[in-house]
């Protein structure tokens, strides 16, 4: 795909359940759900002139804050606390997706081994969390990711009544660089808006430490990476979200936990 490696890499992910693990980096295969639907084909190219490719220097500057008085956990906003021990998102408010993991060709995943499922442990107050450990390789254009789709079959989910997203994360070793990503209709090829430069999802860079940290992020606090991607809309499109995922960069020996993933509402 001609892009430099490191952190500008296009993201490709394949669910373990699909039985195909490593994708050719030049043909990104988006994460599908564990449903039996085939992996989505590459999105058709939009008609010429339909995509505004104008770079926006600072997307957040164009968007007003969504919650003047802060956020709180939304009613029926739980995406998953992993306590049921299965790979399904909590079946609330129409959500039906599953957890998945993906990796680049030379990356290895140690946990979960085999089927994607929660591990014993997790954040305080629970007994299970999503444990994701392995090693990524500098020779690959991207590293590895764990995520959860909102809908079975990988469709777009309307989360517009929520204000943002919350989750807990920790790393076995201090200072691990992880990027939260929420693919939407503009950044996932299934939306038909991006062609060559998909997967620059709105999200947030995090340096993850060894203590559980709760991250509460309003939609307006999520940004694309600054120097690539097409289209580059002013903000995430909350009424058409694909998934939430946590991506580790190439060249990392990683061991992270994710737990208590939920939507936020305004106070
Ligand atoms: Ca838990």
Could you say how many structural domains there are in total?
1
Order of helices and strands: EEEEEEEEEEEE
The biggest sheet, with number of strands, parallel, antiparallel or mixed sense and barrel status, is: 7 strands, antiparallel
Poorly predicted residue ranges: 1-64
User: Which oligomerization state do the chains in this entry correspond to?
Assistant: single chain
Strand content: 25-35%
Structural class category: mainly beta
Estimated helix fraction? under 10%
What value does the Rg take, in angstroms?
A: 17 Å
Number of strands: 12
- What distance lies between the first and last C-alpha atoms, to the nearest angstrom? 44 Å
Q: What small ligands are held by the chains?
A: calcium ion
Name the shape in a single word: globular
Mean pLDDT metric: 82
Number of helices: 0
CATH level-two architecture: Sandwich
CATH superfamily: Galactose-binding lectin
CATH topology: Jelly Rolls
CATH class division: Mainly Beta
């Amino acid at each position: 795909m001609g892009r430099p490696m490191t952190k500008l890499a296009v993201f490709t992910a394949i669910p373990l359940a699909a039985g195909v693990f490593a994708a050719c980096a030049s043909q990104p295969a988006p994460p599908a759900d564990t449903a039996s639907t085939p992996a989505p084909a590459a999105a058709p190219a939009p008609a010429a002139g339909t995509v505004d490719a104008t770079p926006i220097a600072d997307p957040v500057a164009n968007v007003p804050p969504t919650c003047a008085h802060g956020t709180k956990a939304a009613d029926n906003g739980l995406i998953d606390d992993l306590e049921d021990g299965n790979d399904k998102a909590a079946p609330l408010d129409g959500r039906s997706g599953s957890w998945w993991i993906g990796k680049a060709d030379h990356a290895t995943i140690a946990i979960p081994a085999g089927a994607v499922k929660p591990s014993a442990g997790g954040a305080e107050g629970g007994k299970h969390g999503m444990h994701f450990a392995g090693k990524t390789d500098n020779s690959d254009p991207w590293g590895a990711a764990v995520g959860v789709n909102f809908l079975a079959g990988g469709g777009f989910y309307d989360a517009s009544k929520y204000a943002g997203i919350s989750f807990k994360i920790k790393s076995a070793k201090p200072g691990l660089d992880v990027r939260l990503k929420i693919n939407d209709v503009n950044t996932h090829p299934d939306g038909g808006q991006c062609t060559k430069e998909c997967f620059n999802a709105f999200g947030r860079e995090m340096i993850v430490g060894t203590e559980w940290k709760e991250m509460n992020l309003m939609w307006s606090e999520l940004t694309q990476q600054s120097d690539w991607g097409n289209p580059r809309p002013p903000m995430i499109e909350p009424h058409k979200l694909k998934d939430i995922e946590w991506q580790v960069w190439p060249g990392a020996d990683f061991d992270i936990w994710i737990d208590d993933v939920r939507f936020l509402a305004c106070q």
